[in-house]
Amino acid sequence: RFGPGRAARALPPRLLLLPLLPLLLGRGLCSAAAASSSGAAAQDSSAMEELATEKEAEESHRQDSVSLLTFILLLTLTILTIWLFKHRRVRFLHETGLAMIYGLIVGVILRYGTPATSGHDKSLSCTQEDRAFSTLLVNVSGKFFEYTLKGEISPGKINSVEQNDMLRKVTFDPEVFFNILLPPIIFHAGYSLKKRHFFRNLGSILAYAFLGTAVSCFIIGNLMYGVVKLMKIVGQLSDKFYYTDCLFFGAIISATDPVTVLAIFNELHADVDLYALLFGESVLNDAVAIVLSSSIVAYQPAGLNTHAFDAAAFFKSVGIFLGIFSGSFTMGAVTGVVTALVTKFTKLHCFPLLETALFFLMSWSTFLLAEACGFTGVVAVLFCGITQAHYTYNNLSVESRSRTKQLFEVLHFLAENFIFSYMGLALFTFQKHVFSPVFIIGAFVAIFLGRAAHIYPLSFFLNLGRRHKIGWNFQHMMMFSGLRGAMAFALAIRDTASYARQMMFTTTLLIVFFTVWIIGGGTTPMLSWLNIRVGVEEPSEEDQNEHRWQYFRVGVDPDQDPPPNNDSFQVLQGDGPDSARGNRTKQESAWLFRLWYSFDHNYLKPILTHSGPPLTTTLPAWCGLLARCLTSPQVYDNQEPLREEDSDFILTEGDLTLTYGDSTVTANGSSGSHTASTSLEGGRRTKSSSEEVLERDLGIGEQKVSSRGTRLVFPLEDNA
Amino acid sequence: RFGPGRAARALPPRLLLLPLLPLLLGRGLCSAAAASSSGAAAQDSSAMEELATEKEAEESHRQDSVSLLTFILLLTLTILTIWLFKHRRVRFLHETGLAMIYGLIVGVILRYGTPATSGHDKSLSCTQEDRAFSTLLVNVSGKFFEYTLKGEISPGKINSVEQNDMLRKVTFDPEVFFNILLPPIIFHAGYSLKKRHFFRNLGSILAYAFLGTAVSCFIIGNLMYGVVKLMKIVGQLSDKFYYTDCLFFGAIISATDPVTVLAIFNELHADVDLYALLFGESVLNDAVAIVLSSSIVAYQPAGLNTHAFDAAAFFKSVGIFLGIFSGSFTMGAVTGVVTALVTKFTKLHCFPLLETALFFLMSWSTFLLAEACGFTGVVAVLFCGITQAHYTYNNLSVESRSRTKQLFEVLHFLAENFIFSYMGLALFTFQKHVFSPVFIIGAFVAIFLGRAAHIYPLSFFLNLGRRHKIGWNFQHMMMFSGLRGAMAFALAIRDTASYARQMMFTTTLLIVFFTVWIIGGGTTPMLSWLNIRVGVEEPSEEDQNEHRWQYFRVGVDPDQDPPPNNDSFQVLQGDGPDSARGNRTKQESAWLFRLWYSFDHNYLKPILTHSGPPLTTTLPAWCGLLARCLTSPQVYDNQEPLREEDSDFILTEGDLTLTYGDSTVTANGSSGSHTASTSLEGGRRTKSSSEEVLERDLGIGEQKVSSRGTRLVFPLEDNA
Is B22 in the A-facing interface, judged by CB distances under 8 Å? Predict the structure, then answer.
């Protein structure tokens, strides 16, 4: 038997889960339609009843529309204010910070401006002995209705949850963030990682992302465990809080998201290496934090004492971490490679619309494939984005390149600002906040110490191997840029069932607010205080079809077509002892990476794109037929002109400026002829010009050019 | 008490409603997270139980991912095959037809290739006296679970519904089509209506769309009522089928969707007027069909005999039709106008990303606003699209123009092909088909007759008023192009609760299949058989920033900047008696439209865009301040060159070819200077050149040029 009085209650908030699409409208309408039709068909006495249900559903549908409309208007307002800020060159507040402020305001209005409507929530009386099923069939006066499980409600909350209908309406299902909003953000991040400087600093970035996040997670976890112990002694803790919970908090709060800082870097053209380090770290450590947090959740020791240390369970967690991470990585890479192959071997580039649609679908299928196989979709999407940028992008037509970029740029922009405005809203509308000042202060101290403990020691060790040291000012800037953002929020809101998780969620929210506003606002002063060079001319990714000019340092463009040559790794012509030593060190320390790079250059690029040396020259003779099939005809066409022009560069006084004319893109997707430079310097190398990489030893002052020797350098940072 | 054995049952199919976003993944994951957390927190004996729930949810989540993946791979396959077809210039099968075929194949595999899993569906025992509520709270051994209403299940189906889990998985909530898939399709249609020929044929298009759809609806409805009566006599009808049901069927099946024909027209450059007539009719009659069908559903006579004729209820239905239609129209127009104002008075065009995001959000908010106010979102979105194309588009930056076009093009493409592949799938996976051969044959005859009864008589009446008659071959082609597509399907699947509706759904599905395959394939032969000119040089919408050349007839470009002039309607200089008569007829018949056109040109365009005459000249003197505020400074800048060049045109031998250099777009969004023509003819008009419209009386042969008089013509087709 069911208690009466739940009629006025509208659709549950988890239906409101669609930030991008008005799906939620579906349910209301549908029940209305079903009710209306059965009413027309049956004509029985329950027609009035069903009319009431229909009215109710319609009302609920309207409320859903209104609440979604609220978010859209919020975003519109944010966009207009951002424009005003950009127009006036205001830099102290980023769009995400602004979105949060507007969200906060709307949250306050909803919380205190709308009447509480808790009256119509009555008790219930349908009991069940066994367990909860995901679907119920209910017999209502001869008619059968199907109900689906929405979730558990803690008994104490039954009467308080329903405080305010509007508050419920604007509360989204947390999984929306993971399944709808984060994928485009993460994919866009991966897709825009196609920067020379990312690959140049790959070693450091991987170290920061993997080691750094692990270190940060454990340090924060342990510090927070101390705080929790303290709270227990003081008597501020009203429920259980285990060590694994602390570690979980450490994992979710270790996902940095310096979107504010990076936007300012971009605008001010700050140092490109620092940008690459920060951006690369933040992108990859999101992936690490997701997998780390799910491994910690998966830590379930055998026996009754489920929160003691258990070596077997620990290693199982480590195994889960490695398994999920490598699995997701593989999924992402595989779909990226498949897309590259498809775009290479079909002439889809004649139809940009088809090409863009295919690109979108394949990238989305990565997410679903990973989820279907039990891996993490968001992580897979990240690596898919990187693969797509590295291979598929080169096969796309010019129009599709801009289309895909713009499509994901818009999706990313909308999703990101939606999350941040939702964060602002959640501070007031979320119903289960647990504010614990001790925990919050402890968390702020812990994240500060955690970041310090990973940036400074790691930078020290990395500097031992790096030729271009990460200076103190860079380290301080990285330390400073430890903002928390969308990923930490999404991880924290994913599970707010227990007391510990609720406290974590509240704390995470406050940390995000504080870091985005304070650190975001302080970036410009910090940059000048730390003497970090700004105004470096580095064209953005949008100018990729134009020439690239790079000042101060000679970078590596991994996307540029190298001329075909087999003996790519016979590094020659270093006529100074310094460069020779550098080579040796490089060869010793980074053989694994070089192996990969050579493999990528000699086999993967030729197979997956229209660039690179022909496979007929790189593959052994016995697979000549296969090589001929896989090699794109464009490669042969590009062969001659490349060999002649690839070593051109310009030397101007003061700065060493190398012109790498970016590969001009032809309509059939091949990227070939390099643009000529204005002045030639050094000997026109004939044989050892096989790599696209030229690097000058710039000395300490960075302006002193030692132009005697040209050397072959791989996109590595650790050539001491 | 609840019966056992429903554990293995996965998430219900209505969760699977997300074609574009993996929302469905949310629910599975979420329950898993909730279960896992409560398990960690509680540590009670129910931990094992919850682990089972978690496993179940995870399994369901995977199945959801797999089924969505199926659709994505289906679309990918479709894209690749389309490419192959386009590459080989195969025209007999359109991409939508292809998507249906692939959908059919997958449907067959799912239906007959996967094992039926009906074993685990047991009976239920939780009864309720009162009525169905939208939410239930269920007490399971001390824990409370929340359930939401999914819908009613007819008692006979309880044990048969669950035949096959996979079939359930791939069945979407019908409202998905209305709330997610149709809006981008319809918006794109409206947004790409920015064609001269649409406005030129507006009168005819409106007549076909409104009168034609109403005529077609009533004729089909009445014919089908006859068929139903016949079936009752023969004994083939097993359940009720009312007259209103027949009318409803007439409404949903009157929505034409000649996507296949239009694609071929586009490719072959078929006659532009015919294209405009067909496209305009199909776009607008979708809107009419939606509103018409909901008005018929709303027809509820007072008293017990709910299916007899009741004048009050009838007029109420008519009122509802008018109310919903005008309300939705207003919503769409208002948001379009607001967007135009915002883009005009901010300098958002410096930031194309912000501009695009704003455009997207505003267009989406139309849908929500209309739904929130109780109007029809899809209809509102259509008119919003038209308004955006007419006004906002002119204010956007060049980059945003292409961005918005491409964004909605991709969304439209994906949504359309998704619907068609779902249609193919639904033929085999939909569980409630009612195949009735008599009804199906009757429906085919009825739609044929219904289309004939609206095309030929309407064309006859329109030809009385049209100068350029709609020839017999055009009428036959329009008759032939009565394909049914996405809209008819979405309307039919929206409600399949009763027997009559299920029969309608099955019939609609078969009609769509038949028309898309047979008519789509027969378009090219039909064009040549009917002697319809193809290969007419008409640049597509993408070339808008280039010059437009138009042969054979002089069209009207409503988006072109007219020179500022007050006395727009003093039509002068018709020195032949023929043209004078033409003017008089025009002035008599179309005064309403001309009033609107002059209002649009003199007030709306200057207020909403950077084009048109300055408001300071068109508004009365006493609102000079307001006029000065609203007029864009660009208008004054554009004033001089426009006046000089606007009457330039070229006369080549044979054809009359007028060059209207399209407004060249400057970076700040203003569209101004007209390109000069090569040869000038006729007197350079100084005063009466106020309208952008120049039309020559072409006589009967269309090649005989009487170039003595220039006349002012409005974008109307009915100037006899």
Answer: yes
Q: With 0.90 as the threshold, say if the pTM is over it.
A: no
Residue-wise pLDDT for A379-430, tens only, equals: 999 999 999 998 899 889 988 999 999 999 999 999 999 999 999 988 888 8
What are B599-653's pLDDT values in tens digits? 888 888 888 888 777 777 777 777 777 777 777 776 666 554 433 333 333 223 3
Tokens 């209207």 sit at which residue?
B660
Q: Mean pLDDT in chain A?
A: 70
Considering only residues 135 to 154 of chain A, which have any Cβ-Cβ distance to chain B shorter than 8 Å?
135-154
Interface test with B, best of A134, A305, A344, A417 (most B CBs within 10 A): A134
Contact B266, B188 (CB under 8 A): no
Burial A406-431 (b: 16+ CB within 10 A, else e): bbbbbbbbbbbbbbbbbbbbbbbbbb
Cβ contacts of B633 within 8 Å, gap of 6 or more: none
Interface contact flag, A137 B153, Cβ < 8 Å: yes
Residue B352 pLDDT greater than 50, yes or no: yes
Nearest 5°: the CA angle A109, A111, A112 is 70
- In Å, how far from its chain's centre is CA A576? 43
What long-range pairs does A698-702 form, CB within 8 A, spacing at least 24?
A: A698/A552, A698/A553, A698/A656, A702/A552, A702/A553
Computed over every residue of chain B, the mean pLDDT equals 70
Enumerate residues 6+ apart whose C-beta is below 8 A from B571. Answer: B583, B587, B688, B711, B712
> Which of A73, A371, A375 should we substitute to test contact with B (largest number of B Cβ atoms within 10 Å)?
A371
Taking the C-alpha atoms of residue B450 and residue A642, their distance in angstroms, rounded to an integer, is 66
Please tell me the number of Cα atoms within 13 Å of B418 on its side-chain side.
Answer: 29
Cα–Cα distance, A720 to A589 (Å, whole number):
10
Residue whose token pair is 């005064």: B591
Residue type, B561: D
Q: Across the beta sheet with B135-140, what order do the strands follow?
A: A126-128, B135-140, B143-153, A143-153, A135-140, B126-128
Beta-strand relationship, B548-550 and B658-660: antiparallel
Please determine, for residue A375, whether its predicted confidence score (pLDDT) is greater than 70: yes
CA dihedral sign of residues A80, A84, A85, A89: positive
Please, which residues 74-113 of chain B have a Cβ atom closer than 8 Å to chain A? 75-76, 79-80, 82-84, 86-87
- In angstroms, the separation between the Cα of residue A292 and the nearest Cα of chain B is 15
Determine which helix (DSSP H) or strand (DSSP E) holds B188, and give its type and residue range. Answer: helix B182-191
Of B11, B357, B372, which has the smallest distance from its Cβ to A65's Cβ? B372
- Separation between Cα atoms, residue A352 and residue A629, nearest integer Å: 25
| Residues in chain A within 8 Å Cβ distance of B364 | 22, 72
User: Nearest to residue A98, comparing CAs of A417, A355, A325?
Assistant: A417
> Pick from A22, A83, A499: which is nearest to B351 by CB?
A83
Q: Which of residues 486-525 of A touch B (CB under 8 A)?
A: 494-495, 497-501
Binary contact (A361, B83; C-beta < 8 A)? no
| ipTM field | 0.75
- What DSSP assignment string belongs to A242-275? -HHHHHHHHHHHT-B--HHHHHHHHHHT--HHHH
Instruction: Give, for B100, the enclosing helix (H) or strand (E).
Output: helix B95-108
Per CB-CB distance under 8 Å, the chain B contacts of A83 are 346-348, 351, 354
- What are the CB-based long-range contacts (under 8 Å, 24+) for A673-679? A673/A638, A673/A641, A673/A642, A673/A645, A674/A560, A674/A561, A674/A641, A674/A642, A674/A645, A674/A646, A674/A648, A675/A547, A676/A645, A676/A648, A677/A648, A677/A649, A677/A650, A678/A650, A679/A650, A679/A651
Q: CA-to-CA distance for B564 and B605, rounded, in angstroms?
A: 11
Q: Rounded to the nearest 5°, which phi and psi values hold at A23?
A: -60, -40
